[in-house]
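step: validate -> pass
step: tokenize input -> pass
step: predict -> running
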Amino acid sequence: MYQWRKFEFFEEKYAAKCAIPDDEEEKENENDDKNKTTIECCSSGRGKVVTGFDDGTVSFFDRGFKFNYAFHPHSSSVLFLQQLKQRNFLVTIGEDEQLTPQQSALCLKVFDLDKMQAESSSTTSPDCVGILRIFTNQFPEAKITSFLVLEEVPPIVLIAIGLDNGSIYCIKGDIARERINRFKLQVENHSDKTLSSITGLGFRVDGRSPQLFAVTPSSVSLFSLHDEPPRRQTLDQIGCGLNSVAMSDRSELIIGRPEAVYFYEVDGRGPCWAFEGEKKLIGWFRGYLLCVIADQRTGKHTFNIYDLKNRLIAHSALVKDVSHMLYEWGNIILVMTDKSALCIGEKDMESKLDMLFKKNLYTVAINLVQTQQADAAATAEVLRKYGDHLYSKQDYDEAMAQYIQTIGHLEPSYVIQKFLDAQRIYNLTNYLEKLHEKGLASKDHTTLLLNCYTKLKDVEKLNLFIKSDDSIGELKFDVETAIRVCRAANYHEHAMYVAKKAGRHEWYLKILLEDLGSYEEALEYISSLESSQAGMTIKEYGKILIEHKPVETIEILIRLCTEDGDRRGDSNGVYVSMLPSPVDFLSIFIHHPQSLMDFLEKYTNNVKDSPAQVEIHNTLLELYIANELNFPSMSQANEYGDYLNVPSAKTMILSSQSNGTTADHEGSQEEKGRLERREKGLRLLKSAWPPETEHPLYDVDLAIILCEMNAFKDGLLYLYEKLKLYKEVIACYMQKHDHKGLIACCKRLGDSGKGGDPTLWADVLKYFGELGEDCSKEVKEVLTYIERDDILPPIIVLQTLSRNPCLTLSVIKDYIARKLEQESKMIEEDRQAIDKYQEDTLSMRKEIQDLRTNARIFQLSKCTACTFTLDLPAVHFMCMHSFHLRCLGDNEKECPECAPEYRSVIEMKRNLEQNSKDQDRFFQQVKNSKDGFSVIAEYFGKGIISKTSNGSASGLRSGNASSSSVI
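step: predict -> pass
step: emit ->
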């Protein structure tokens, strides 16, 4: 004890008097004995202090020991009392008037302090809800030495009453309703078989099973009250006297003996603390051990407060003779035998720490805040100050040990700035390691730690930090930062390890390709990835791989974009749509068109129904049709790879002759390759546009543009012919001055019997007419087909060919002769037809005039409909048909025999009149007809576009169809 340091962590707040106020005492001055009352018992709880006097009075004091009120629960003396915590009840044991000699004067009472009753006009007292006689025939009377109440589930209480004969009377139940259960516990002294007095009691609740500690001067026992009967266990063969028993907040029994203070648990004696002196009173308050110790040499009493965890005396003071020790209002209350009271309170944590900091007792301060369960921020602040103190003394190792304990509460930059000096790099490394272990490191902290490792060249720690089993899984550091720092320090193996374990494939490949140039290993790594991850990595690094390993890269792309039969099942369009598209990888071939062509060719050979086949065919056509298989930036693509292979100017001059031969050879090879590609392009144009489909599997407009830009005549002719753009087809031959091919094309495309366009011959004739060259042979052949199909009038032919000064009349002499002869025959036929039409017209006019002026005689004797003899009533039509009236329908005004023919004529005229309003159709007929004049003449001849009034026609229609007579 003498080695323990003393501190004043507590202070005396005030002193008070535990007595009735003066105005109350004056009423009782007549009897002096009443003013000499002593305090028999004390209790506290629910913000009050309760004292019991030997005159049967119980007094209540509020905070600051202000007297509240008093009442007399017993007539003689109050021996024991206890204020309950869960309910505002007061349990007392005292002496009352003895009614009969057989009954004991001691009784137990329970008061409800929330219910007050008026005893007289000036005094009130709480309601007594229960009175119980302690001693009965089954429970003989003895002196009560200890009293303790355990509150179970309200209103159930467990009361233990210790006697001087070694017995304990227990009362359990609801005393207010007199529903109780009594039982007796016996403590035996095995040394001399005599009964010892109960000097202390203590309840311990283990779950729902209460246990009772019982102390006598010669033993310490533990009763398990949940057993029937209660089971007794002897914990020690040595006990203690009165007032030397207490219970800790961990339900440990505390016993004070002259040589030491002992702690007991359910399994026996625990730790002990050697404090000399007689222990007058023992208590426990907020983790502190309280002792009132009497010095046998001086006879003085000392009140000590012990902090057992930190091994220090928190307070020590000389006191008077203390009779009771209470705890209320957050303070310790010492009640003296002279009825005075001393209130001692604990100082706040800040004051205690300031006291320790002034003495540089940082270790004590740390232990103090940890034992008193201060918040983590307060503990970290104490540790920081201790670390600063050690740092100022240049004890850097110990300072860092303190700073490490502040991780999570102290800003790391505060510590890092102190240890940035190179001489303290080991301490800084230790701090940063702990910071990463707790997962509180930022990217900058990771960078700094890795720089420390690399600066120290501590490969072992670097391996431990990077390659530990749980480092990546718990993300103790920023992966990207670690990779970047390791790469900068040329620790590529470590950077690759981190990238691979963290699944950062892009970083792994970046190191392999950019730092190490391990292209084969990179391709193997990509092959081991899942399809989606492999596709993303190839998109990012495909340009480098294609440049150095084109064949292997294309193989990986083919595996990604096509189906693997062993792993991916049967081929179907739905699954193919889920695979990566080759179009997604076109950008990586930007400087390597030959590799792109190889890739797309292999893909199209494996996949026939790709969703992206239109885009693929467009790209292949661009590669096939292009004059040169390169891009404008191809020269820059080889800037690094072929730099060393570029010959000097002197070498080029000396080898000019050999280079010329080589250039010719390369030129021939290039031309051969171009022809092969164009053959592939033409095959693709044809195969991707099957005859049964309307639209091709490529962009037609793009294909035409490519063919025109690269002067790919064969492809252009095929596309124009498929699109039925025959005029554009012959225009291609005209541009090339391929007369033989032009005529052959017109023979194939100008045959109307096979769906061709005969007007092509007119365009060809116009071409030869404007050619300005002698093309008599070709013109004669063209005229043969124009004459055969009667495509152009002779006058147009003459006008067209007259523009070519190189052509003579002999070219068209035979054609003109034949045409004139043919025209003469046609004129003669037309004159004969005119004469015939004139005769027919005159006869019709005569018939019309006769119908208008002369009467018609009907002499038919039979009905036209039924062929029976015609009788009355009969109907006669102007067309000389007669019918029975019964053979005609109701309201029939037209001849049934002639009406269909007449209606067809009327309908035809109506259709012609409607067609005359459709100008587009009229002009289309004129345009498509060999002789447009004949179409116009037909419209005039049918009166469709004539301005002649149709009044006469209406009259004719009325006389022919509607005129009839009924006889």
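step: describe -> Confidence is low (pLDDT under 50) at residues 26-34, 565-575, 632-658, 948-967.
step: cleanup -> pass
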